[in-house]
Amino acid sequence: MKHPWRWLILVLVVALLGLAYAALWQSPTPRPGGYAIDLPEIRAFAADSVGPVEIRAIEVARTPVPRGGMIAGESLFAKQPIVVLSYQLVYVDGSTVMVDTAHDLSLHQRNFDPNGFGFNQQAFDQMQQAMRAAKLILVTHEHLDHLGGVAQSPFLAEIAPKVLLTQAQATGPTLSHVGFKPGDLERLNRVDLRAPMLPAPGVVLIPAPGHSTGSQLIYVRRADGHEFLFVGDIAWDADAIRRATGRPYVVSHYMLREDRQAVADQLLALQPLLAEGEVTLIVAHDEAQYRDLLKQGLVVDGLKLP
């Protein structure tokens, strides 16, 4: 064969393109019915309780990431911020429930920026005071940017009785990244969540393993009847739900070790909820969506402190 090396190069190029497609541009095909969100059942759990009167939030940190790392097939050169937020549910009697607790400066430097760029120490301190005053602390899942604020809290002994983890969250394989000191994790309350449950008035936990083994949806029905669904990191951007397209293989498998098919099925299940708008979805790290929620008054900027 004349110039066989040219054919070899061509074969290698095609093979590399195929690998790149699989690693960066491909997402599992979601299965209809692979994950079901039974809204009537969820609503029934909250029906006899009065939920919070408002939802508040604070941005503790942010970091830029390639959009192609958030949604398979998107540009790897266009960057957008991932925001790390903590939410506060405020009841008419002034009591509060916290949802997600961000992370501290040490975790930010170790995992996002060695110089601490993008971390807001004042916001972290305010969140800590809000956790001290809360009656309950929940997390959508056990990753460091959601549970790290508990693990690294200077008030852990005080807030530990208020933290409620699921058994799956308390035994997740990524907990070593969160940095609990020996014995601290065992101080936190845990529940074996296998079906929806009501941990606080108007709040329902729904198991949704996939992004992590302990991932859960958190449904909130406000006192005026408006419904919210915290989806955690099932998606990092609401566009992933609109397209039912997850993170690329190189991110979801090698970096996150998530169940890609489970996430794809959950994205498809969330798609009609996002499109219909009857329930307001809250995507944990989507800055554009967060700004829109603030603009609409559905979420209030800043936490209520004692």
Question: Would you mind describing this structure in some detail?
Answer:
- The longest helix has 22 residues, at 4-25.
- It is globular and about 45 Å long.
- The protein has helices at 4-25, 39-46, 67-70, 105-111, 121-133, 144-151, 156-159, 167-170, 238-243, 249-255, 260-276, 287-296; strands spanning 54-66, 79-90, 96-99, 136-138, 164-166, 189-191, 197-200, 203-207, 216-221, 227-232, 279-283, 300-301.
- The chain has a single domain, classed as Ribonuclease Z/Hydroxyacylglutathione hydrolase-like (Metallo-beta-lactamase, Chain A), CATH 3.60.15.10.
- The strands form 3 sheets. Strands 4-3-2-1-12 form a 5-stranded mixed β-sheet. Strands 7-8-9-10-11 form a 5-stranded mixed β-sheet, covered by helices on one side. A two-stranded parallel ribbon has the order 5-6.
- It is an alpha/beta fold.
- It starts with a helix and ends in a 5-residue tail after the last strand.
